[in-house]
Structures are given as C-alpha cells and as structure tokens.
Amino acid sequence: MSDNLERLWAGWRAAYMVSGVGPPAMADEPAAIEAHAPQCVMCQVIASASEVPTRHVHQGGLAVVVMNAFPYNNGHVLVLPRRHVDRVEALDDDERAEFWQLVTDATTALRRAYQPDGINMGINEGRAAGAGLPDHLHAHVLPRWFGDTSFTTTVAGTRVIPEDLEASAARIRDVWPR
I need a labelling partner for 19 at 20 to 30 A (CA). Which of 64, 104, 137, 170 fits? Predict the structure, then answer.
C-alpha cells in the first residue's frame, strides 16, 4: 500500500455496519428535516443574502455559493441547495443539476481568481463521514497550493488566512462564469 499502513480485515464488522442498528436517518423522515430548517445554520446563511451580501458569492434559483465562515484557505466556498435536505439523493433533478453546475462554476472561478496548484471538492454526508453540520447538504470547494500547510499549522495547530472573507468573495464574484 502506498500509505505504508498495515491492513487488519475485520469482516464481522460488515454485518454490524449494514444492520441498520442506531438512530434512524433523518433523510427517511422529510417532515423532520423540514421542521428543523428554521434552526439550521445553513438555511440562515442562505436567508441572510440581503443582510450580509458581501459573503455571498453567487445566488442561483435552487442553490447558492457562499464563503465558508471558517475557511481552510483563502477562497474556501460552500455550495448549498436552497431547500433544506441532508443528502445528495434528496435533491430533485433540477436542484441536482444546478448544485453540480455551481460546484463546477466555483472551481472555474477559483482557478481564475487564485491560480491554485489544485482544488479540493468534498461533501461529508452525516456525522460519521465528518460533517460538522450534517442536516443541510453542502459541498466544500477550495483552492490548494503546494506548501499551503505552514509552520503555524503543523506546530501551533493554527491556520493563517491572509485574506478576509469579504475580499475573497469580491475576488471570486469578479471572475464568476457568466
């Protein structure tokens, strides 16, 4: 293996993982998802476009692009469906098409704005997958550079973001695909 890790196969765990034991998934309960929407941080961010327009990058009819309030790097954006759903498969065809188009547009804009060495794109569905806000689907799109993890990150556990969110949003909006 290229990661130099040993592998320990525990086939007996597969039965546990697929047994359905544990809390029921919210996606199976649309009423519960909709009832949670007023308290959802992501829904509040979407609704705040007129109050905090400087952090909104692009407003689509079914999805939006906003700056991540806790970015990993300059230019870290989130693509959010307007409707409060927690899984990709909960999106209807039109929502799914716009969501993925905005992910694509975000990568184009980030390449234009920052000339990165690469782009990270990711979705973490559910807490087990690493989602900090698991109740509202969102995709992370962020530029990456060779060496973008510095001494401060590796030793002090602190990330230095040299550009403020409003400046990043303006920079990305200026080159957004039309």
Answer: 137
Backbone torsions φ then ψ of 4, nearest 5 degrees: 60, 25
- Domain ranges, ordered by start, for the chain: 25-174
DSSP secondary structure letters along 7-58 = ----THHHHHHTS--SSPPGGG-HHHHHHHGGG-HHHHHHHGGGTSGGGEEE
- Find all residues with CB under 8 Å of 4, minimum gap 6, and list them: none
Does CATH place domain 25-174 in 3.30.428.10? yes
> Per-residue pLDDT tens for 126-141?
999 998 899 999 999 9
Residue corresponding to tokens 């990568």: 107
Sign of CA dihedral 18, 20, 24, 29: positive
